[in-house]
Amino acid sequence: MTITIATWNINSVRLREPIVLDLLRGSAPDVLCLQETKSPVDKIPTEAFTALGYPHMVARGQKGYNGVAILSRLPITDAGQRDFCDKGDARHVAARLENGTTIHNCYIPAGGDEPDREKNEKFGHKLDYLTELRDWFHAETPAKSILVGDLNIAPREDDVWDHKKLLKVVSHTPIEVEHLAQAQDAGKWVDVTRADIPEGQLYSWWSYRARDWDAADKGRRLDHIWATPDLAAGAGDSRIDRHVRGWEKPSDHAPVFASFDL
Predict the structure, then answer these.
(1) Could you tell me which residues are beta bridge partners of residue 101?
(2) Residue 177 sits in which domain range?
């Protein structure tokens, strides 16, 4: 069975319900993982998603902040959540397909503006989240699993518009990149997108601050799809739908896709 998974930081699922529906109609992934839904679970517009053939959802939410949801055309069961840093934030949820594949949907903290945990509590929170993620994967080696989400880090030089200029900018600092690499290595996760598209500039986020985001093209690859080695061998068809960033009232992120032979 081949399934397509998409991940997208939607920046309010209720505000941007129309473009979520457009994506489901046009691209029809089997599973769509959303981050920053900014909604309690009971306020997510599930009726419209069900009408398009997505009757299954596993989600965690809170009013106005964070929030993660997994929408699926295929039956899924709730596989739990982790409360990273004991903050009670809705930043992780997992779902399990009928064949036993587990899908983790993560929303790693952005980290604020100052890359110094002594001066910026938000940056410390981000690093602590990544450390807990690493320790979890060391303690419980994942298998038959896919991890997706807004990881809020662009790890490679060609994942940002200018490597040197962004070395001291949160999302591309060496300490963040190293923390993310440690978490990835702990779970032996394969970066599916870069396994498929190994060379060249690749972005999934463009700031709202740019007057013309497309022309300026100062992007970063903050959104990721990883898989354990037992599934990564069957992964392919990776892409980032950049044009979605230009839709009406868009998120500042574009959806990332990959297919898996499960």
Answers:
(1) none
(2) 2-261
